[in-house]
C-alpha cells in the first residue's frame, strides 16, 4: 500500500508541474477510482487473512487485477498529454522491478505480475511512436530476458542459502547433542546432568515441589573388566543403561552416566518414598535382566548399589550430590545390591 501511495504521489507531483497538469489529473480522475478500490481491498484482504493463509490462485488473480487498475490509470494519463510518457514508462519500470524482486521465489506469480506491465509499456510506446517500433520491442524482449534470467539466478541463490542454513542448523543440533550425550550408553552425560540438576533445583525452589536424586554404582565393575575384558564391560554398561531408561519413563526424569560405572537419576516432583520405589524398580529390573557377572562377591549377575536423597530448601546441587553419594557409600558398606535412603 505504501508503494502504491508513493507512486500516485509521484504522478500527481510530476503532472502538477507540466503544462495543464491539473487539467490532466482532473480528466484522469475516473481512471484512479479502480486503483484506489483495489488498494483498499488489498489492505482489507491482508489484514483479515494474511498472506500465509491466502490461496495462491486468489493471489494470482489479485496480481492481475492490481496490474489492470494501474494500466487504467497510466492509460488515462497517456491520453491526457504526450509529456507524461517518460514518467509513465518510469513508473512502469519501477513497478516491474518491484514485483520482480518481491515475487522472485514464486516464478508463476512473478510472471503474472510483470509480463502484463512489460507488454503495456511496449504498447504505450508503440501507440505514441508507431514509426519507431524497434526500441519498445527490443526493450520488451530485454526486460523479459533480464527478469527471467535474474529470477533463476536469485532462486538458485535463495535455495542454496536456505539449504546451507538448514544444514548448519542440523550440524549445530548434532554438535549440541554430541556435547550432551554419552557416546557409549547414549544417556545424558555429566555436563547435561549438571545443567539439568541446577534447573530442577531452581524449579523446586520456585514451585515448592520435592526433588530427589539417585546415585548408582555397578557392584565390582572393575573385577568385571578384569575378568571379562573391557569390550564386555562396555556391553554391560550399555545393557545397564537400557535397563535404567526402560524403568525410568517420565518425560522430565533424567538418567545420566555420571562417570565410569556410576549413573545418576534426577527425579523432579518426587519425594523420598517415590524415589525409593524407583530404586527398588531398578533393582528388580536388573534382577530380571540377569546380566552375568563373572567375579562378583554379591551375585552371579550384575547388581547395583544405590543412594537415594531428597533435596532440601537451600541445598545446592553440590550438597545434593554429596548427600546422595553418602547414601551410596552406606549401601556399599551394608553389602551392596541394595539402596539406602537419607533421613
From TrEMBL:
GO BP: cell adhesion involved in single-species biofilm formation; negative regulation of bacterial-type flagellum-dependent cell motility
Any one GO CC term of the record: plasma membrane
Domain of life from the UniProt record: Bacteria
Record carries keyword Transmembrane: yes
Q: Enumerate the GO terms in the molecular function aspect.
A: diguanylate cyclase activity
SUPFAM superfamilies documented for this protein: Nucleotide cyclase (SSF55073)
Where would I find the GGDEF domain in this sequence? 209-343
Cofactor annotation:
Mg(2+)
InterPro entries in the record: Diguanylate_Cyclase (IPR050469), GGDEF_dom (IPR000160), MASE5 (IPR033444), Nucleotide_cyclase (IPR029787), Rev_trsase/Diguanyl_cyclase (IPR043128)
Broad class of enzyme this protein falls into:
transferase
Q: Which CDD domains match?
A: GGDEF
Which reaction does this enzyme catalyse, per its entry?
2 GTP = 3',3'-c-di-GMP + 2 diphosphate
Q: What is its EC number?
A: 2.7.7.65
Organism per entry: Shewanella canadensis
Is Repeat included in the keywords of this UniProt record?
no
What Pfam family is a match, any one?
GGDEF
Q: What is this protein called?
A: diguanylate cyclase
> Where are the membrane-spanning stretches?
29-47, 59-78, 84-104, 111-128
Which terms are listed as keywords in the entry? Membrane, Transmembrane, Transmembrane helix
Amino acid at each position: 500500500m505504501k508503494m502504491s501511495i508513493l507512486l500516485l504521489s509521484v504522478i500527481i507531483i510530476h503532472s502538477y508541474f507540466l503544462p495543464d497538469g491539473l487539467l490532466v489529473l482532473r480528466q484522469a480522475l475516473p481512471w484512479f477510482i479502480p486503483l484506489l478500490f483495489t488498494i483498499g481491498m488489498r489492505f482489507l484482504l491482508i489484514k483479515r487473512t494474511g498472506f500465509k493463509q491466502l490461496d495462491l490462485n486468489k493471489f494470482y488473480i489479485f496480481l492481475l487485477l492490481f496490474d489492470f487498475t494501474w494500466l487504467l490509470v497510466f492509460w488515462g494519463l497517456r491520453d491526457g498529454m504526450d509529456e507524461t510518457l517518460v514518467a509513465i514508462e518510469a513508473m512502469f519500470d519501477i513497478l516491474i522491478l518491484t514485483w520482480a524482486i518481491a515475487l522472485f521465489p514464486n516464478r508463476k506469480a512473478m510472471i503474472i505480475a510483470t509480463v502484463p506491465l512489460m507488454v503495456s509499456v511496449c504498447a504505450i510506446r508503440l501507440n505514441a511512436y508507431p514509426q519507431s517500433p524497434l526500441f519498445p520491442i527490443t526493450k520488451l524482449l530485454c526486460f523479459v530476458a533480464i527478469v527471467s534470467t535474474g529470477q533463476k539466478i536469485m532462486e538458485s541463490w535463495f535455495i542454496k542459502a536456505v539449504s546451507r542454513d538448514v544444514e548448519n542448523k542440523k550440524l549445530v543440533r548434532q554438535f549440541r547433542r554430541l556435547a550432551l550425550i554419552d557416546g557409549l550408553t547414549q544417556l545424558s552425560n555429566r555436563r547435561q546432568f549438571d545443567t539439568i540438576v541446577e534447573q530442577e533445583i531452581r524449579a523446586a525452589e520456585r514451585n515448592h515441589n520435592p526433588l530427589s536424586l539417585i546415585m548408582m554404582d555397578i557392584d565390582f565393575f572393575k573385577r568385571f573388566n578384569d575378568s571379562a575384558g573391557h569390550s564386555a564391560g562396555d556391553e554391560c554398561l550399555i545393557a545397564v543403561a537400557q535397563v535404567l531408561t526402560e524403568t525410568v519413563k517420565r518425560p522430565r526424569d533424567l538418567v545420566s552416566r555420571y562417570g565410569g560405572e556410576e549413573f545418576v537419576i534426577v527425579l523432579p516432583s518426587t519425594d523420598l518414598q517415590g524415589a525409593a520405589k524407583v530404586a527398588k524398580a531398578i533393582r528388580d529390573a536388573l534382577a530380571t535382566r540377569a546380566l552375568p557377572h563373572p567375579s562378583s562377591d554379591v551375585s552371579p549377575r550384575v547388581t547395583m548399589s544405590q543412594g537415594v536423597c531428597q533435596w532440601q530448601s537451600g541445598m545446592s546441587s553440590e550438597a545434593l550430590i554429596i548427600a546422595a553419594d553418602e547414601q551410596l557409600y552406606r549401601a556399599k558398606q551394608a553389602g551392596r545390591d541394595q539402596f539406602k535412603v537419607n533421613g
